[in-house]
Amino acid sequence: MDVDYRTAFDLAPVGLCLSRNRGIVDCNQALCEMFAAPREQLIGQTFQVLYPSADEYERLGARMAPILNARGSYADDRIMKRATGELFWCHVMGRALVPGAPHEAGIWSFEDLSEQRPVGAELTPREREVAARLLDGMTSKEIGKALAISHRTVEIYRARLMRKYKANTTADLVHKLIAGA
User: In the chain, which end has fewer C-beta atoms inside a 10 angstrom radius, N or C?
Assistant: First the structure.
C-alpha cells in the first residue's frame, strides 16, 4: 500500500510544522486548530506569532540553538499564545534538518496541554520561563544556569510566583501551576 505522506501530515493527531529560519513554511490542520488560526494566516509568518511576547520568542530561539546544534533535537513545555490572545501550556518538540544550522530548516510538533495544565495567574515572560522549569523539577541553580541568570534571581521569581499563586511551598506552587489555580 502506498502511503500518502501529505494526507498523513495534514491529519496527524498533533500540530506539525515545517520551518525555515524560524518561519512557518507549512503546517497541518491540528496546528491551525490549536492556535485558532487559518493556515493562510500562519504560512510565511515567523514563530513569533505563536509566542506571548517578542522577547520570549528571541530568548528561546537563542537558548535552543546550541542545544539543536549539539543534539539535533529540542523539547520543552512552554506557554504559547493562540490567535485569540489566549495563553496555554504547550509541549513543543523539534528536530533540525540541517546539521550545524539549527534554525535553517526543521520539523516541529506541538501538543496542547491546556486540559492537564491550565494557565492561571497573569505571569511575566520570565515568570513563565521559571514556572516551566519548576514544572520540569529543576532547582534554582539549574534554572539559573538554563536561563543564564543567577540562582538568587530565580529565587526572586519563584517568590513572586508563590505570592501570585498563594503557595506556601515549592511543591504547593508546582501543584497550583499544574492545576492552573
Answer: N
- The pTM for the full model equals 0.73
Cell numbers representing residue 178 in the block:
499544574
Kindly list the domain boundaries of the chain, sorted by start residue: 5-112, 125-179
pLDDT means over runs of 10, the chain (181 residues):
86 96 96 97 96 88 88 90 91 92 94 81 82 85 90 91 85 75 53
Q: Which fold has domain 5-112?
A: Beta-Lactamase (3.30.450)
User: Looking at domain 125-179, does it have CATH number 3.30.1330.40?
Assistant: no
DSSP secondary structure string, the chain?
A: ----HHHHHHH-SSEEEEEETTEEEEE-HHHHHHTT--HHHHTTSBGGGGSS-HHHHHHHHHHHHHHHHHHSEEEEEEEEE-TTS-EEEEEEEEEESSTT-TTTSEEEEEEE-TTTS---S---HHHHHHHHHHHTT--HHHHHHHHTS-HHHHHHHHHHHHHHHT-SSHHHHHHHHHHT-
Task: Report the DSSP beta bridge partners of residue 143.
Answer: none
pLDDT, position 12: 94
pLDDT for res 179:
67
* pLDDT of amino acid 175: 75
Q: Which three cell numbers stand for residue 90?
A: 504547550
pLDDT of residue 121: 63
